[in-house]
Design brief:
904 residues; alpha/beta; 35% helix; seven-stranded mixed beta sheet; single chain; eight-stranded mixed beta sheet; Rossmann fold; Aminopeptidase; 38 strands
Length: 904
């Protein structure tokens, strides 16, 4: 093979300067979708920048090629190919981002990997493309091949391709393994020494599972680099108490960090007795984690030093970035860009810090004066000031931590990253989250749903000022994901003490045992309100002995009719509690059924009720105590609901038959140009909305739009009597109380009269004539793409009263079999559908079918911004959709949202 060897051995078209794309696909020949640019994680946790190639990359491409070993060039180009000639350089860097796409992996301004696909239309395969990529020798083994393949597949799918093909030398086992490891089903054809590989690029279930597993491993590794460093530099270390740089250095030393700590100070030779260095560059050893406590204005110099030292993770505890607004936001953006471009991760800025209580790490890189001892709880929050209070509360409540991360402004490392780490961390058994916002709610839901199957997640969400809207979205997200949502930090720790030390209840039957009738009744009433089945409390009397107390608890634990126990102990006179505590703790150590208590008004796990290991660390079997019995009952209810969710079999995503995705996407994209240049979305008329729903098997009851009495009569005759005539303006459409509808019209004169009356009443110029549907209970199914939470499906009864009371339930997409049924039952008014006051129940399956079809349409056609199907008349034999409207808008991230390629 000579230096003129083509880039694709099979030899597609060699025209180095492609024609511009067709009008409407891109705005120019070299422009590409913004969402093709991404920062991703390699398998070692390092950051790599992915972006499409541009003509200005020509020199960098030549340098990249020159740096490849002879072996790598041979395997990629089937020959020596020592020099990339100008023609091939132009071809690689001048592409149309449609029929030919080239993606680069960039680190520190240098190309470290290249992936390319080219359409095979000239070979009679208009939906197939040939794919190839090459990785720099020093970066092989970091998983860059699969990453490029995933992103190329996403781009190709957007551009209408369905299949990738590749020519691979049979001896190139690495390349064949890349295709296999990516989860694709391969079809091979051998021709001598060359393997011809073909595979579909659709995101199959197996492919998605493989991709998510790689994502889990790389993101967990990235966080592990921060939480398990072998050495730390403190930049801005100070000997002055009260300074940020003093606090973090003091805590690292006092906590007994297992590795070396290097203070960095431009003038001092030592700080608090530890050898100091003028710059990170001067430190003789490798630095894994750099804790930065210098003003934001000095960050550029610090960053240069850290990049030169090849620091893996930057923890910035300094404030004055986006938290200060203005120039601070610009400084933070420049910091993030520089950090990522050099393969680092960033925690913060404005972070409180990180903790890892593992005996082999002993990391306390925080500003907090109090840090809890070792335990099994992982905690993530954003706010530094709040984090100090959280750590103090955890210590007072007896909640031990495995790890703690305060992400501050969360410029880079997020809660999703830390969840991935906790999924792989055996020391973490319970996860606590205090969230002010969601960076990627779709990804959060996917990760949390997997993690919650093994470990309880308890969360408070306090983001935004629109409280009702925030609550609606976060509740849907948490319910879908099995996350226990609570309203306050005290309730968060109520759950933490329960999940950390007690088993989950296997049922909702609760026994209340104690020596106070009043407190027992309070626990009983709260438990009933929370959905528990609480028996009459057992009052042992104020003078109950420890033996009587223990016998009653043992009897309850042995009773098959009891799933959990609430123990109340408040003696009327001062008496030693140790004996009563001992029998309670002994019963709990058996871990047969969960036990919670109101014990002497203690809050948390007191020493009297703590089971410990040989190192004195609180372990399972400890008994949590709550000052009020209502809190004890409420936490059991949280535990029971979570246990129910976890016991459900994993439900498949609903995918109803009889749908035409391609036709729906084609229609929507034909209608999109109707959006004027000043807007971003448009509401389709009723006819187009019905046309789109019909492609997904949702049949709106036939109707026609009319403007005169004569047109109304003609429409009625075509539809067949009886018919309805109704106004469809926003004020009238779903307001039965405004009587802008005439029903059961059986003849032409009745139709004409109804038209005339409604025209005068409503002032609408266009009315609808619609075939009559069977009378039923009015329902509403809706969808909206919430920018903060993600795609939400809603369900409730139709009409002004449910709307006024906010009686709508919400679930995130994609909808599963389990979540569809839950959504139908979630509104407070749902019992009406099951049969109420002697009425027959409606056809549940018909309503669920409408919901799942609307959900599937919304999920598979991401240009759809909102769907409103209301009213839907639910009867004993079906569900008739009387009206629907759909809003569409441009979706620049059509497949990026759905395929979720690995990006930060």
């Amino acid at each position: 093979m000579t230096d003129e060897t083509p880039l694709f051995p099979s030899g597609p078209s060699t025209d180095p300067f492609p024609a511009p794309l067709a009008t409407g696909t891109r705005s120019g020949p070299y422009e590409f979708p913004a969402h093709w640019v991404a920062d991703v994680l390699a398998s070692d946790g390092g950051v790599v920048h992915i972006r499409p190639v541009v003509p200005d990359d020509a020199d960098a491409m030549v340098q990249f090629h020159a740096g490849l070993s002879e072996r790598t060039r041979y395997l990629r180009y089937f020959g020596p190919y020592p020099v990339m000639p100008p023609r091939d350089v132009a071809r690689m860097t001048t592409v149309d981002h449609d029929q030919r796409v080239c993606l680069l992996a960039v680190l520190g301004g240098r190309i470290i990997a290249v992936g390319l696909y080219e359409g095979l239309a000239d070979a009679g395969k208009p939906t197939a493309a040939e794919v190839a990529f090459v990785v720099a020798d020093e970066h092989q083994g970091r998983g860059l091949g699969p990453i490029l393949l995933e992103h190329l597949a996403g781009a190709a799918a957007e551009c209408g391709f369905h299949k990738f093909e590749a020519e691979v030398l049979a001896e190139n086992r690495y390349m064949v393994n890349v295709f296999k490891a990516a989860g694709y089903e391969l079809k091979r054809n051998f021709d001598g020494s060359v393997v011809h590989v073909e595979f579909d690029i659709d995101p199959t279930e197996a492919l998605v599972a493989v991709r998510n597993a790689r994502e889990l491993a790389s993101e967990a590794r990235s966080v592990r680099n921060a939480l398990q460093p072998t050495s730390i530099a403190v930049i801005g270390a100070s000997a002055t108490p009260g300074k940020v740089g003093h606090a973090v250095l003091r805590n690292l030393i006092a906590g007994g960090f297992a590795g070396p700590v290097f203070p960095v100070h431009p003038e001092r030779r030592s700080v608090v007795g530890v050898r100091a260095y003028e710059s990170v560059r001067d430190i003789p050893d490798q630095v894994d984690l750099a804790v930065v406590a210098v003003p934001a204005d000095n960050m550029d110099t610090v960053l240069d030093d850290c990049l030169a030292k090849d620091v893996r993770t930057l923890l910035v505890v300094s404030s004055g970035f986006s938290d200060a607004g203005g120039r601070g936001t610009e400084t933070e953006n420049r910091l993030l860009t520089a950090v990522r471009s050099h393969g680092m991760r960033l925690i913060g800025p404005n972070a409180l810090g990180v903790v890892n209580t593992d005996e082999e790490v002993r990391l306390n890189a925080t500003l907090a004066p109090v840090v809890p001892g070792r335990g099994n709880v992982g905690f993530f929050c954003q706010s530094g000031a709040l984090g100090i209070a959280i750590l103090d509360t955890a210590a007072k409540r007896g909640v031990g931590l495995s790890t703690f991360v305060s992400a501050g402004n969360r410029a880079d490392m997020s809660g999703n990253d830390v969840l991935q780490y906790w999924d792989t961390d055996p020391a973490t058994e319970v996860v606590l989250l205090y969230l002010e916002s969601f960076g990627n709610p779709r990804k959060f839901g996917r990760i949390a749903r997997r993690l919650a199957r093994q470990k309880p997640i308890v969360a408070v969400h306090r983001g935004g000022v629109d409280v009702d809207r925030r609550r609606r979205g976060s509740e849907a997200l948490f319910e879908n994901s099995g996350v226990v949502q609570v309203e306050s930090i005290p309730e968060l720790f109520d759950c933490a003490t329960f999940f950390s030390y007690q088993p989950l209840p296997k049922g909702r039957r609760v026994a209340v045992i104690g020596n106070s009738t009043a407190l027992g009744i309070l626990a009983t009433h709260t438990g009933v309100r929370e959905g528990l089945d609480v028996a009459e409390p057992v009052d042992l009397g104020a003078a109950a002995t420890p033996e009587e107390f223990g016998a009653a608890i043992d009897a309850a634990l042995a009773d098959d009719r009891v799933d959990a126990v609430i123990a109340v102990f408040v003696p009327p006179v001062e008496a030693p509690p140790e004996a009563h505590a001992a029998v309670l703790l002994e019963a709990s150590r058996k871990q047969i059924k969960p036990i919670v208590s109101t014990f002497l008004a203690f809050d948390g796990v007191t020493e009297l009720l703590a089971a410990t290991d040989d190192a004195g660390v609180r372990v399972r079997g400890s008994v949590p105590s709550y000052p009020e019995p209502e809190r004890a009952a409420r936490v059991l209810a949280h535990g029971w609901r979570y246990a129910q969710w976890r016991a459900r079999p994993v439900s498949d995503v609903v995918r109803p038959g009889g749908t035409d995705t391609e036709a729906a996407r084609t229609l929507v994209r034909e209608w999109l140009p109707s959006i004027d240049s000043g807007g971003s979305r448009v509401t389709l008329d009723f006819a187009r909305s019905a046309q789109l729903l019909k492609l997904y098997g949702v049949q709106v009851v036939p109707f026609e739009e009319v403007s005169t009495p004569e047109e109304a009569v003609a429409a009625a005759e075509r539809l067949g009597f009886p018919v309805a005539v109704k106004a469809m303006g926003d004020r009238w459409r779903v307001r039965a109380d405004l009587t802008a509808v005439r029903l059961d019209l059986t003849g032409p004169s009745a139709v004409a009269s109804a038209f005339t009356e409604l025209l005068a009443q409503t002032g609408e110029s266009v009315l609808h004539v619609q075939a009559m549907a069977e009378k039923g209970i009015g329902c509403a199914v809706g969808y909206e793409n919430d920018r903060r939470i993600g795609p939400l499906l809603s369900f409730g009864l139709s009409g002004v009263v449910p709307e006024l009371l906010g009686d709508r339930a919400y679930r995130l997409l994609p909808l599963t079999n389990a979540s569809a049924g839950d959504l139908l039952d979630a509104p407070k008014s749902a019992p009406i559908l099951a049969g109420f006051a002697g009425q027959a129940g409606v056809d549940r399956d018909a309503l669920i079918d409408v919901m799942t079809r609307v959900a599937t349409l919304a999920y598979e056609v991401p240009e759809i911004q909102a769907i409103d199907c209301e009213p839907i008349l639910a009867t004993t034999t079906g569900a008739a959709v009387l009206s629907s409207q759909i809003r569409i808008g441009h979706a620049s991230d059509v497949l990026a949202q759905q395929a979720e390629p690995r990006r930060l």
